[in-house]
Amino acid sequence: MNVPYFRPSIGEQERAAVNGVLDSGWLTTGYLTRRFETAFAAYTGARHAVAVNSCTAALHLALEAAGIREGDIVLVPAMTFAATAEVVRYLGARPVLVDCDPVTLCADPEAMWQTARTWAAGGRLKAMMPMHYGGQMADVFRLKAIADEFGMTMIEDAAHTLPAHIQDAEGNWHAAGTTAAITCFSFYANKCITTGEGGMLVTDDEQIAGRAQMMSLHGLSKNAWNRFEAKGSWYYEIVDAGFKYNLTDIASAIGLAQLEKAERFWQQRREVAARYEAGLTEWSEYVQTPREIAGRKSSWHLYPIRLHLNRLSIDRAQFIEELKQRGITCSVHWMPLHLHPYYRRTYGYRVEDFPVASAEWPRLISLPIFPGMRGEEVDYVCRSIGEVAAAHHRGTLPAPACA
Predict the structure, then answer these.
(1) DSSP letters of 357-394?
(2) SS3 for 22?
(3) What is the largest CA-CA distance in the chain?
(4) Which of 277, 300, 318, 386 sits at 20 to 30 Å (Cα–Cα) from 36?
(5) Contact between residue 64 and residue 93 where contact means Cβ atoms under 8 Å apart
(6) Residue % of the chain over a pLDDT of 90
(7) Class of domain 263-391
C-alpha cells in the first residue's frame, strides 16, 4: 500500500468555481476575493479579513500594521516554521526565540514571561507571535496577559488552525481568529483548507485591516478592481511603499468552495486522529501520540508522534526511511529555529538555550493525516510503525523526561 503524506480534497465544486473565474474575464483580485474575505471573517468570528497570497505575507503585513520597525524586538517560538521569524527580519526587527511547552510544543507561557522580562528594558519589546503547533491552540489567555503586562501586540500564527477552539475560565469557547489583535491563516496546499497558495489576516481593528489591505498592493490608494469597476476612476496615489501580496480571484474561488467544506474536513481529520490513537495504543512503548488538552479543540492539521528513542536501536531518520520503504510518506515539523545555521550565526544561539525544543526535535515524526484518508490507510500506517519498532527494539528503559 502507498500512503501519501497528503492528498488534496479538490472536487467538481472547485473546478466549476475556477472555470467561472476564467470565463468572467477578471482573473486577479476582485469581487470573489472580497466575497472570500467576508465569508472567512464570518466563519472565524473576526470583524475584518484581508486575503493575501501566503500566510507569510499575512504575518509580514500584521507586523507592519502593528508598527514594528527596525530595531524592535518580537518574541517568537523556537519551535515554528521559518516564516514566523523571518518576517520579523523583513522589517529590520529582531526575533527573540522562546522555548516550547513539552506537551503541546506551542510557546511555553512561563518561558515567554521570563523572556519578556529579560528584554523589556529599553522600550523596544513590541510584539509576540505565538504559533499554534499542529492545530492545537497555545495558551492564548495566559499569553495575552503577558502581552498586556509588557505592552506587546499579540499576533497569532494560526497557519495550522482552521478551525480550532479554546475555552476560557468561564467555560466560553473562543475560535482561532478571535483571541489576538491580529491572526494569520495559511491556505497552502496541505493546510486545513487550500487555495493552492494563499493566506488571510483577520482582526477586529478597522485601522489595522485598512493598513494591511493597502500595503498588500503596493500601498496604492485604490486597487485595480476599484479603478476598473463601472463607477471607478483611473486615478490613484501611492500612499506608502507597499508590497505585492494580493490574492487572485482564481485562488479565492477555490477558497470559497473549500470554506464551505471546512467543518466536514475538520470532522474527517478528527476521525483520522482518533483512529491513530486507537491503533497506536499497543505500541505506546515506542511512540508517544499527541494529546488534545482539556479545554481545547485541535484542528488536527498535523498528527506528530514522538519516538521513545531510548527503546529503539535506530534513530528518527532510519525510522522514517523504513516507513518509506513500506510506501508511507512522513514529514517532520520542525527543526527548531535555534538549530538552523542562520540563527546560530546571526544571534549565537546554542542547542542548550532551548532544552525542550532541542530534546523533542529528534523524536518527532508527522504522520499522514488528511480528509478522505481511508481507514485501511490509517491501520496500515499503525501496523507498519509497530513492525518497524518491534524489529528495532532494544529493551525497556526509563521513559525520557519530556515524555
Answers:
(1) HHHHGGGEEEEP--TT--HHHHHHHHHHHHHHHHHTB-
(2) helix
(3) 75
(4) 300
(5) no
(6) 93
(7) alpha beta
Residue 398: pLDDT band by 50, 70, 90 thresholds?
very low
Rg (CA), the chain: 22
**In contact, 186 and 163? CB cutoff 8 Å:** no
Q: Which residues of 31-59 are buried (b: 16+ CB within 10 A; e: fewer)?
A: ebbebbbebbbebbebebbbbbbbbbbbb
The answer to whether the beta carbons of residues 173 and 166 sit under 8 Å apart is: yes
Which residue's entry shows cell 483520522? 272
CATH 3.90.1150.10 boundaries in the chain: 263-391
Q: Does residue 191 carry a catalytic annotation?
A: yes
Catalytic residue among 144, 191, 244, 324: 191
Strands 182-186 and 199-203: what pairing?
A: antiparallel
C-alpha–C-alpha distance, residues 203 and 365, integer Å: 33
Give pLDDT tens digits for 172-219. Answer: 999 999 999 999 999 999 999 999 999 999 999 999 999 999 999 999
Map grid coordinates 501566503 to a residue: 54
Residue ranges, comma separated, of all CATH 3.40.640.10 domains in the chain are 12-259
pLDDT bin (cut points 50, 70, 90) of residue 230 is low
Residue 25 in grid coordinates: 474575464
Query: What is the assigned CATH class of domain 12-259?
Result: alpha beta
> Residue 402 above 60 pLDDT?
no
